[in-house]
């Protein structure tokens, strides 16, 4: 997520991008995930490799392959043929974690460890995932953000997840950051909405202060 505000209209208006421009921007960003360049041969299927062996592969310069098809549940609504949802007022936004050299996430192993705001969503299948949840930043935003679907490898619309096997990042050549899609399925139009997408793990500091963006990204939606 590289912008602080996303504004679009189905037809070009001052200060807004057309749907075509939004699609082109996403396509340009996503080229690296379909490009079979010289680094493609240095990518491995990390899901099929025991976790304790992965660090050795990473030290050799190998990294996990991440395909644009590696998101669930299907069919993926965040695709070019579906205009990434922008033509229907259901925008898809890419959310990824910053590259932090050597960082290994410590994930939640029981419901009691999970922050209260997402505790009701936690399931044992999430033990090996960094969790990501998007929501309205302030109560007024929450009231106008009616439905957000998370499309990720985790396969749970209520919350997204990135598998821990992608970590640690060791500055491997050609490393491609894993990401999730957040689709804002139902939001109020003609209102500027403050959105926060927050990552959750035991070693990502959480704060009850809604202004604290540690481990989170803030952006605004308007259409």
From TrEMBL:
Q: Which InterPro entries match?
A: Na/K_ATPase_sub_beta, Na/K_ATPase_sub_beta_sf
The UniProt keywords, alphabetically, are: Membrane, Signal-anchor, Transmembrane, Transmembrane helix
Q: Kindly state a single biological-process term from the GO annotations of this entry.
A: intracellular sodium ion homeostasis
Q: What is the first-listed, main subcellular location in coarse terms?
A: membrane
Which Gene Ontology cellular component terms are annotated?
sodium:potassium-exchanging ATPase complex
How does the entry describe its membrane topology?
Single-pass type II membrane protein
Instruction: Kindly list the places in or outside the cell where this protein is found, as annotated in its UniProt entry.
Output: Membrane
What's the protein called, per UniProt?
Uncharacterized protein
């Amino acid at each position: 997520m590289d912008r602080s505000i996303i504004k679009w209209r189905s037809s070009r208006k001052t200060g807004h991008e057309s749907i075509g421009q939004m699609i082109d921007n996403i396509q340009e960003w996503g080229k690296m995930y379909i490009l079979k360049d010289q680094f493609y041969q240095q990518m491995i299927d990390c899901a099929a490799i025991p976790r304790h062996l992965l660090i050795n592969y990473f030290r050799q310069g190998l990294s996990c392959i991440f395909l644009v098809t590696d998101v669930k549940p299907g069919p993926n609504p965040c695709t070019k043929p579906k205009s990434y949802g922008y033509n229907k007022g259901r925008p898809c936004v890419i959310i990824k974690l910053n590259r932090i050299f050597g960082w290994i996430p410590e994930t939640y192993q029981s419901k009691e460890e999970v922050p209260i705001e997402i505790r009701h969503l936690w399931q044992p299948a999430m033990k090996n995932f960094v969790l990501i949840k998007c929501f309205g930043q302030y109560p007024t935003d929450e009231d106008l953000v009616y439905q957000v679907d998370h499309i990720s490898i985790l396969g749970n619309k209520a919350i997204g997840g990135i598998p821990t096997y992608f970590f640690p990042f060791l500055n491997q050549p050609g490393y491609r950051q894993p990401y999730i899609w957040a689709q804002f399925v139902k939001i109020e139009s003609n209102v500027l909405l403050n959105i926060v997408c927050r990552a959750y793990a035991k070693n990502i500091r959480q704060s009850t202060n809604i202004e604290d963006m540690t481990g989170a990204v803030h952006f605004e939606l308007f259409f």
